[in-house]
Each structure stands twice: as C-alpha cells, then as structure tokens.
Design a protein that fits this description.
alpha/beta; 6-stranded mixed β-sheet; 9 helices; 14 strands; globular; binds zinc ion; binds fe (iii) ion
Length: 253
C-alpha cells in the first residue's frame, strides 16, 4: 500500500504533511491546528501520531489543540525535549517506526537548531526535512555552525536520487532568485527557476522536490563541486568554508 501524503499550507508560508499508510495517519509538524483538523475531517482519517522536527513555534504551535482533539501521541527530538510540548516518545538518530511503505527512521540534521531531525521513509522514497534541507535552499543556521549544516547537507546528499524532499516552508521562489546569483550559468537551475515561477503564478506548492533536483540546482548542496567553487573564486577552499560563504551571502540577500 503506497503512502498517501497530503501537503497542508499553514500560517503564512509553512507546510505540514499528513502521511497515511499501513500503520495509520502521521502528521509531520503542527504549525497550527485548524487547517490540519479540517483536512483530517474531510478524509475521515484518525491521527495516530505527530512527529516534530524541531522546537520552533511555527512547527509546534498546533500540537496541544490536536492532541486534545485526537488523543494522538507526540514524538520529537530528544535533544530539544525541554523546549517542546511534552513528548510521548523522544527520538534520536536511528530511531523509527512503521512498517512496509510506512517504515520511517530518524536522521539527525542539526544546524538550524541543534536538535533538528528529519523523518526518512526509505521504502516510500520520501524525506521530511522541515528547515534543514529546503527546496533550493536550507534553513538559516541559528543554533549550530555552518560546518554542522554542511554535514547535514552531506547526509541528504547520501540519500537515493529519487527521494522526494518535503520541506517546511514555501521559500522556493526567493531561493531561486538567490541561487541564480551563485550559479547564473547553471542550465538546470535556470530551467527549475522558470518552472517554479510558473507554478507559483498558478498558486501551486513547490514541494516536494527530489534529491536529484537539489543536487543539480541547490547551491547549498553543491558546495563541494569544483564548478561552483570556481564560480566563487574559491577553487582550493574546503567544502565547509564554501558552504559558509554561500550561507553568508544568502543571509545578506
Ligand atoms: Zn525553524
Ligand atoms: Fe520554520
């Protein structure tokens, strides 16, 4: 039974995801309760658990209302437990659950926050990355270091190319404008930027992308490549420092 994944726009530019599979319905992040509760109602799905990626309010603000309504379990990163709503299960790298296409494991993807985790569904070829890897970008490095976030990008680089990437925000159009300043001659990026603009004009979400697309076009996933380094006059600079330079430019963009 393939997974049914529903993208739910929340707040001004967040995404939550319902994942319905053999073991019931999971919610990845809970920015606010109302749109999620409405989606559950319309599909007659019972929420079994909420999986949280990190402690920021725009990812957890709806937890208590949904827990009260659905009686679901709440799971999230053990490393951020004291900053999260009470957890029924605290998660660390390698933990997981589910079965068949619904099998998932926890990836540790720090940088945006120190305890940020992602949920990888290897059989379903999907990863929920929230504010770590984002479509054509990555989250701001608030708590960790650029080197830590570069390690996180390498974690995603190691996933199969056809893995779909479900990130936490609709920032892709702005990310595309920035990416083009780093690699104006990247043909795959030019093409993706055109697709993003057309899609956004029709009001479509830009998620999910794929690991293959991110490898070809996301500058933060390309800091190790000689073509990109040469473009930045950083041909002999270590990968993590090239990543840090791109992140610095994006913060000022
Ligand atoms: Zn965040
Ligand atoms: Fe966020």
């Amino acid at each position: 039974m393939p997974l049914d994944i529903v993208t739910i726009p929340c707040l001004s530019d967040n995404y939550a995801y319902l994942v319905n599979g053999p073991d019931g319905t999971l919610l990845i992040d809970a920015p606010e309760a109302a749109p999620i509760a409405a989606e559950l109602d319309s599909r007659v799905w019972n929420l079994s658990a909420i999986l949280l990626t990190h402690h920021h309010h725009d990812h957890v603000g709806g937890v208590e209302e949904l827990r009260a309504q659905c009686g679901c379990k709440v799971m999230g990163p053990a490393a951020e437990q004291e900053k999260l709503p009470p957890l029924d299960r605290a998660l660390a790298e390698g933990d997981g659950g589910g079965s068949g296409d619904g099998a998932w494991t926890v990836l540790s993807v720090p940088g945006h926050t120190l305890g940020h985790i992602a949920f990888h569904f290897p059989a379903a070829r999907a990863v929920f990355s929230a504010d770590s890897l984002m479509a054509l970008g990555c989250g701001r490095v608030f708590e960790g270091t650029p080197a830590m976030m570069w390690d996180t990008m390498r974690t995603f680089l190691a996933l199969p190319d056809d893995t779909r990437v479900y990130s936490g925000h609709e920032y892709t159009a702005a990310n595309a404008r920035f990416a083009l300043t780093v690699e104006p001659d990247n043909g795959a990026l030019q093409e993706r930027a055109r697709r993003i603009e057309a899609g956004r004009a029709r009001g479509e979400p830009t998620v999910p992308s794929t690991i293959a697309e991110e490898k070809a076009t996301n500058p933060f996933m390309r800091a190790h490549l000689q073509t990109l380094k040469a473009r930045l006059d950083m041909a002999s600079t270590p990968d993590a420092d090239v990543f840090a330079e791109i992140r610095k430019r994006k913060d000022a963009f």
